[in-house]
Design a protein that fits this description.
The chain has 194 residues and is mostly beta strands. The protein is built from three helices and ten strands. The chain is globular.
């Protein structure tokens, strides 16, 4: 059975994912008060992938989300919508949907981000740039902690860590600001939980 890191190496070697697309910086997790979401901003474009979106959708049809306004908006922006950790994350008018640009051979999202929508309007992403499997700063559990609060856990890998076992995990708390002309997601706190 292939591991996630081996699957990512396979994608790089096969030319399905450009090396520049997986060179993500996770330093933002240590400075969560930096702003990367802006009220009224467009959904960011996905990074380049050598696999055509139609081929990705067909190959990974079992995990692709096709229903709902958020999924439709992500698809229009060029992303392939999916359920993060195989579950729908929604409550009231808040919806968190994954968008991937590439996937491993077994359809694990390999280049992705998590997008927050409020009443069908884009409010922001949980990370400032796309994440990659088994890399520092990749998202794990995401929870709607209240009407306007979201928490997400991110793996923190050290140089000697194996892909199964990051040295630590941090929890980032976000607030949805409804008071602007358009909703905007803001990271407000980071706490090490392991």
């Amino acid at each position: 059975m292939r591991t996630r890191r081996h699957a990512l190496v396979f994608l790089l070697a096969a030319g399905l994912v450009p090396a520049t697309a997986v060179a993500q910086s996770s330093a933002w997790v240590d400075r969560v008060t930096e702003k990367w979401n802006a009220a009224g901003a467009a959904i960011p474009a996905p990074p380049a992938s050598h696999e055509l979106k139609a081929a990705l959708v067909q190959r990974c049809a079992s995990i692709v989300v096709t229903e709902g306004a958020a999924a439709a908006l992500l698809a229009q922006a060029g992303w392939t919508p999916f359920l993060h950790l195989d579950r729908r994350i929604a409550r009231d008018d808040v919806d968190v949907v994954g968008g991937m640009a590439a996937a491993t051979p077994d359809c694990q999202p390999a280049m992705f981000n998590l997008f927050v929508f409020l009443g069908g309007r884009f409010a922001g992403t949980l990370a400032p740039s796309p994440m990659s499997l088994a890399r520092d700063g990749v998202a794990g559990a995401v929870r709607l902690a209240g009407t306007d609060s979201i928490t997400a856990e991110f793996a923190r890998y050290g140089p000697a860590d194996s892909e199964c076992c990051p040295s630590s995990v941090v929890r980032v708390t976000y607030r949805i600001n409804r008071g602007t002309p358009a909703p905007v997601l803001e990271a407000v706190e980071m706490r090490r939980v392991r």
